[in-house]
Amino acid sequence: MVLEDGTRVERSRGTPQGGVVSPVLANLFLHYAFDLWMARAHPELPWCRYADDGLVHCRTEQEAQAVKADLQIRLAECQLEMHPTKTKIVDCKDGQRTGKYPIWKFDFLGYTFRPRLVKNSRRNSMFWSFTPAVSATALKSMRQTIRELNFRQRTQSTLGDIACKLNPILRGWMEYYGRYCPSALYPLFRHVNRTLVAWAMRKYKRFGGHKTRAGLFLETISRKNPRLFAHWRKGTIGAFA
Hints:
By secondary structure, the chain is α+β, with helices and mostly antiparallel strands. Helices cover 42% and strands 13% of the residues. It has six helices and five strands. The strands form two sheets. The protein has a three-stranded antiparallel sheet with strand order 3-4-5. Strands 1-2 form a two-stranded antiparallel sheet. The longest helix has 20 residues, at 22-41.
């Protein structure tokens, strides 16, 4: 393996984290170590896997404990092990499953799965369901991305310039995380709007130190041109102040 400074490091085992070929080799290995084994050992259980993250759906806690023990043995045979803290048995609690279990939510691929009140459109009533929405960790990462873009300091840019650079990112997040419980993205949209307020306060002297005025200025623009930013098109044009 060649490091960034040109140093060569001999490797006799594994592949480097971040290497181009590492994900391919990992998926090939896990296809035989996990996927095919699950089909043979537990054909009755639905499961899914993305890279080294996976879920197995069991009918009872006892069945989950047994599968976990079997999987631990299987991975040890392949010189792998389950993550000691990330591997959990979770109760998918909803209106039908009312038992008490200490762990009732989990994160998977940027979503948090947990009990939520959802609406039955046919009956026009609310009920408890075990559903996904964007996770707090994913929201934190997205807000960090906005901060790193540092739009509030780019006073030489126009609002249209910022929209051109930010919209592809926003659309990607909205397409992925907005598929389930899109309202969970509203805190992110409010963060973007507040960042635009900070930009306006720096760009225009008349708004310096006047957050409310800058907010009203941007709110007026959002109502006149609601398609300027991707999240404005969804109706998220408030929370400027």
